[in-house]
Amino acid sequence: MRILRITCLLLLATSLLTACTEVRPWQRGNFARVEMQWQTDPLESALNDHIFFSKEASSGGNSAAGGGCGCN
Amino acid sequence: MALRIDANYESLSGASPWFTLAGSDGKPVVSLSGASGIRDRRSEISVGASYYLENGSISGNIGYSEEDDYRAVYAGLSGERHFNNDNTTLSAGFSYSSDDISPTDAKLFNRVTDEHKNSASAYFSVNQLINQVSSIQSGFSITEQSGFLSDPYKLRDVRPEDKTQLAWTTSYRRFFTTADDALHINYRLYHDDFGVSSHTLDTAWHQNIGGSYRLIPAVRYYSQSAADFFTNIDDFTQPLTAPQSSDYRLSAFGAISGSISLVADFGKWTATLTAERYVAREKYSAYEVSQPSTALVAYKRVSFGIDYSF
Predict the structure, then answer these.
(1) Which residues in chain B are contacts of A69 at CB distance < 8 A?
(2) What is the pTM for the complete model shown?
């Protein structure tokens, strides 16, 4: 029940944030910058995922899981 | 069209929790496997390719990972499509991994010898540009695991042979033009049918310094609830089929970590130096802790990476 309440709250927050204006192609220069990428450093992200995966019970997110870790 | 090849090698050694007993005061005492108990090497290679279309792209990858006691073969396929004059992007993907587990010193310690597990994972996400300086991404993933999901190195560790994991993530990026920096905020809500739920919130500040350097301070908070079958004292009177585990990773705890990275960008070459401190504690937990684990970890990490693009 608690998870359901938190999920509803976050979905509401997300929908409020996406009250957005159309961004034209010539206005998208900032999104091409490396610091604005969803994953700025794939190698560092993979290392972090591997470390947290081996020390915590949670995994998964915006990409499908890879393989190759022996930590059950 | 883009092609990507990744190779990775790592080695580690150290002690590992073996089993837990009740001490003379009734509190759990962890027995370790010994300082030389775990030695392992891991090699991984993966190949990925992306094909770009007018309104999106299709990507695929295959990989192989090998440790002294573990082998995995995996493959994935994903695609993305842009809508609303490229203001909205939908992404979806699927991956599959087939893993073989063959613990070292199996006969000496009466461990399992050859076990197998399969993992299948799918995700769907939406990216939306909010305005000229900010964007948001929200995604959902589901992973199904089946087979041997227990820890073969523990004296008694019995887990169910099927597991479903659900994760919902939301990420936000905001660029500050005058300060020339970017704010990253990521949140993940997770639940699996072992009974573990978790919150992960991390935020990073990407500060540009001159034209070639970036300083990135970051903080991360993580908290999880315990698995239904977690026990902080192993019960050897239970039948071998009864799920139970004293693995601290299945206990309720919270963890706080902070890191700072310095990135130097010299065109085709990029160097990254990162220092991180991670501390897991029962008192940091956002969930009720009925059985605290005595084996929670804390670590310091320094890493250095070099990227070359051609």
Answers:
(1) 65, 70, 72
(2) 0.88
